[in-house]
Amino acid sequence: MRVTDVRCHVLLDPGYDVTATSSAQDTIVVEVLTDAGVTGIGETDLNAWVTRACIEAPGTHTMDLGLREMLVGMDPLDPETAWRELYVGSAMSGRRGAVVHALGALDIALWDICGKARGVPCWKLWGEQATDELTPYASLQPEVNSYDEYAESILSWASRAVRLGFRAVKLEATFSGPYRHRGLDEPDERIAEVVTAVRREVGPSVEIMVDVQYAFDSVARALATAERLAEQGVFFLEAPLWADDLDAYGELSRRSPVRIAAGEWLSTRFEHADLMDRGGVQVDQPDVGRVGGLTEARRVCAMAAERGRLVVPHAWKTGISVAVAAQLAAVTPQMPFFEFLPRELCESALRQELVDDGLRYQSGVLGLPERPGIGVELDPDALERFAEAGRRVRGGIYG
Question: Is the pTM of the predicted complex or chain greater than 0.70?
Answer without folding.
Answer: yes
